[in-house]
TrEMBL record:
Residue stretches spanning the membrane: none
Nitroreductase domain residues: 7-176
UniProt cross-references to SUPFAM superfamilies, sorted A to Z: FMN-dependent nitroreductase-like
Family matches, as PANTHER family: NAD(P)H NITROREDUCTASE YDGI-RELATED (PTHR43673), PROTEIN DRGA (PTHR43673:SF12)
Domain of life: Bacteria
Pfam families, per database record: Nitroreductase
Keywords, ordered alphabetically: Oxidoreductase
Protein name, per record: Nitroreductase family protein
Coiled-coil region(s): none
Matches recorded under CDD domains: MhqN-like (cd02137)
Xref: InterPro entries: Nitroreductase, Nitroreductase-like
Gene3D superfamilies in the cross-refs: NADH Oxidase
Amino acid sequence: MNLFTAIEQRRAVKHYDPEGSVSEAAFNQIMNAVLLSPTSYNIQHWRFIRVTDPEIREQIQAAAWGQAQVTEAAELIILCADTQAWRRDPQRYWANTPAETQAVMLPMLEAFYAGKDQLQRDEAMRSCGIAAQTLMLSAKALGYDTCPMIGFDNEQLAEIIHLPEGHLIGMMITLGPAARAANPRAGQLPLDELLRENRF
Ligand SMILES: Cc1cc2nc3c(=O)[nH]c(=O)nc-3n(C[C@H](O)[C@H](O)[C@H](O)COP(=O)(O)O)c2cc1C
């Protein structure tokens, strides 16, 4: 599917075929595409939870105020991030670069992130957002639908998935064959209201 067609056809789909499935090949193709999403300094701090256990899905659905797609969709992926990834073996993030590059990048990373909690958090959310869009468009390109979700109790979800210290939850995404198309688009703002030249 053409990229622009996938962008136009991606919608937040709330109703899935409960008997539907995503092949392992398609799931892996989507997730491997997600891993090519950009991150600052290439730190790849996203961490993904694929929720396959029906009981855990039900617990998550309760934490998501009963939203049907949480249990109906073939797949549920929770996009998390390790806010401390910048200091966990960072040389891995430039493993294929020359030693001189690594020698420059490592202190830069430290200077950029150390002691800046809000920045670490912002960065994690930015990266989850970009990864989410890659996931949703890749899924659409393969004929599946998705719904990004933040409609859940963050603390409850963190407890259910045993979110480690220093990690956060960006969003969840449901994925699978749809049972019902999304409603018509709710109303898009015009470009000339949103795009300014040079300054606000
Ligand atoms: C970060 C994020 C969180 C969202 N959370 C939910 C959610 O919890 N439940 C839901 O039904 N839709 C959720 N949505 C879907 C939005 O309502 C939807 O994307 C928006 O209305 C635009 O519709 P479209 O995606 O079909 O173009 C969320 C979307 C985003 C981007």
